[in-house]
């Protein structure tokens, strides 16, 4: 509603280049964006002309299916920007392509280059469209996908498999393929050897039955890595799993477990509970992401088996486990030494209780850095979401600026953050203090601001935060030495002229000494820098 009419075309052209999925599909903000673009560009019907398409970009992805055949054929370039099409949009796309009026021509005339030029739209082709493509072109395309498969990451491999399955289904009516499929008497094709594996795309050249019959167990196990570098559907992988079980009826040797790759993901929790996972190298090989995704229950069983056989988790293993699976580990299963060597771990998915457990482990792990607060902070920073207010105060007053970044500040335990004073926060953030103003609408910051006196926010921080409490009539906020944020972004940490000695505890009297708040005070060596 705030976009001026004179610049709306530029605005929507730029907006259409962004990641629209940051706004949920169907949300009022996303539909409002499309509605504003239609109005600005003068879209009055389902037909979009080339100029409108050029300005709409990925916004076309949210339009009605009938827009696809009604618009200029250039709409195909817009559709390439869509992460996925709805079923109705997919049908409309295929109907448009079948008419042959686009730059790609009639599907019966497509070749390898045409299929490649379709880009992501090739994922949206249905069986009817694919069946019209010449078999030679389909095979050339499958071979090009398979050739790239070896060097792809897991997510890209999943897309490649979808393509291969679709193209293989379109070729299923091939007479030679059908004849092989009907026979189960033996290998009717060329027996699979090491050279066959190197030179062929087995998924394309052998149907499921012939793959099983033509691949001997001996050739299979000797060439396992080369086989797993080829694209296969889950049905083919199940055939290979069966061969593993036939070869090792008494249990898979540990050296063979390391070689399983994506086959390992086919095993049940009960089967995993029998594995001989005794070394961290075996566990690391099994957890390698190149083998695909594990189910949480499978990983839990795998870790339980490893630990029950005397294994110990290391830092690199914690990195591989990562995320919410790390949160599922018991406190006693995570050695402090593993935390020390793990590098940056993401504990944001963990419960508050688990964050506190991991923080205590990190305290022990990095205790040797207690005399260098800034270095200590850098190492313990990922775990500060579990830190109590006392330790955060000690960090704030350690005598050396740590310059906590805003994302870390926002990850602190909300209950503990509310216990921090204005000066504590200033000292924690240091040169990043101005970032607090940018985060003022975050619930965590708003809650903290509402518990502080507004005069103190103004005098100590001086960055324009509003929403603090008004002071009761007749009271005066204590003065604090401040450096206005507008003058320098670096917060100063009060340091005394002489270091105070640690006081000996005494009984509380009825006349406690009151220290002047105007005198800068330095906390003794912070307990947060030593394990409790």
UniProtKB/TrEMBL annotation:
<keyword id="KW-0325">Glycoprotein</keyword>
<dbReference type="InterPro" id="IPR010335">
    <property type="entry name" value="Mesothelin"/>
</dbReference>
<feature type="compositionally biased region" description="Low complexity">
    <location>
        <begin position="472"/>
        <end position="509"/>
    </location>
</feature>
<keyword id="KW-0472">Membrane</keyword>
<keyword id="KW-0130">Cell adhesion</keyword>
<comment type="similarity">
    <text>Belongs to the mesothelin family.</text>
</comment>
<dbReference type="GO" id="GO:0016020">
    <property type="term" value="C:membrane"/>
</dbReference>
<dbReference type="Pfam" id="PF06060">
    <property type="entry name" value="Mesothelin"/>
</dbReference>
<keyword id="KW-0732">Signal</keyword>
<feature type="compositionally biased region" description="Polar residues">
    <location>
        <begin position="510"/>
        <end position="532"/>
    </location>
</feature>
<feature type="region of interest" description="Disordered">
    <location>
        <begin position="468"/>
        <end position="532"/>
    </location>
</feature>
<protein>
    <submittedName>
        <fullName>MSLNL protein</fullName>
    </submittedName>
</protein>
<dbReference type="InterPro" id="IPR026664">
    <property type="entry name" value="Stereocilin-rel"/>
</dbReference>
<dbReference type="GO" id="GO:0007160">
    <property type="term" value="P:cell-matrix adhesion"/>
</dbReference>
<dbReference type="GO" id="GO:0009986">
    <property type="term" value="C:cell surface"/>
</dbReference>
């Amino acid at each position: 509603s705030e976009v001026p009419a004179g610049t709306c075309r530029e605005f929507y052209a730029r907006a259409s280049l962004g990641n629209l999925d940051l706004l949920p599909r169907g949300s009022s903000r996303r539909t409002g964006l499309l509605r504003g673009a239609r109005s600005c560009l003068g879209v009055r019907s389902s037909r979009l002309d080339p100029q409108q398409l050029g300005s709409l970009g990925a916004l076309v992805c949210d339009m009605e299916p009938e827009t696809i055949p009604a618009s200029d054929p250039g709409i195909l370039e817009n559709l390439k920007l869509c992460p996925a099409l709805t079923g109705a949009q997919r049908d409309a796309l295929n109907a448009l392509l079948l008419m042959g009026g686009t730059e790609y021509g009639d599907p019966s005339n497509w070749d390898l280059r045409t299929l490649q030029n379709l880009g992501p739209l090739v994922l949206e082709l249905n069986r009817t469209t694919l069946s019209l493509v010449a078999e030679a072109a389909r095979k050339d395309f499958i071979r090009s996908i398979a050739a790239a498969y070896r060097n792809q990451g897991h997510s890209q491999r999943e897309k490649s498999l979808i393509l291969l399955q679709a193209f293989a289904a379109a070729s299923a009516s091939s007479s030679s393929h059908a004849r092989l499929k009907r026979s189960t008497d033996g290998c009717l094709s060329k027996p699979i050897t090491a050279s066959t594996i190197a030179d062929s795309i087995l998924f394309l050249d052998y149907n499921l039955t012939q793959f099983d019959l033509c691949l001997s167990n001996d050739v299979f196990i000797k060439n396992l890595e080369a086989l797993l570098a080829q694209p296969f559907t889950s049905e083919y992988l199940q055939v290979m799993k069966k061969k593993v079980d036939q070869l090792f009826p008494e249990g898979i040797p540990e050296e063979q477990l390391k070689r399983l790759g994506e086959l390992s993901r086919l095993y049940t929790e009960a089967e995993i509970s029998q594995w001989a996972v005794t070394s961290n190298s075996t566990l690391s090989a099994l957890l390698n992401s190149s083998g695909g995704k594990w189910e949480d229950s499978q990983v839990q069983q795998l870790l339980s088996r490893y630990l029950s056989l005397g294994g110990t988790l290391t830092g690199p293993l914690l990195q591989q486990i990562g995320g919410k699976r790390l949160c599922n580990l018991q406190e006693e299963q995570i050695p402090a030494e593993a935390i020390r060597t793990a590098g940056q771990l993401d504990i944001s998915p963990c419960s508050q209780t688990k964050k506190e457990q991991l923080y205590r482990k990190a305290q022990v792990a990095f205790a040797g850095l207690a005399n260098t607060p800034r270095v200590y902070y850098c190492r313990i920073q990922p775990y500060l979401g579990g830190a109590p207010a006392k330790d955060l105060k000690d960090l704030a007053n350690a005598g050396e600026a740590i310059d906590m970044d805003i994302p870390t500040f926002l990850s602190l335990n909300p209950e503990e953050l509310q216990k921090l004073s204005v000066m504590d926060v200033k000292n924690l953030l240091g040169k990043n203090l101005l970032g607090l103003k940018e985060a003022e609408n975050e619930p965590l910051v708003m809650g903290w601001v509402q518990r502080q006196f507004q005069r103190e926010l103004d005098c100590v921080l001086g960055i324009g935060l509003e929403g603090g409490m008004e002071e009761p009539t007749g009271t005066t906020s204590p003065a604090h030495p401040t450096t206005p944020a507008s003058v320098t972004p670096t917060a100063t940490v009060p340091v005394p002229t002489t270091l105070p000695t640690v006081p000996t505890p005494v009984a509380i009297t009825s006349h406690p000494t009151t220290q002047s708040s105007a005198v800068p005070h330095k906390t003794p060596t912070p307990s947060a820098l030593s394990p409790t």
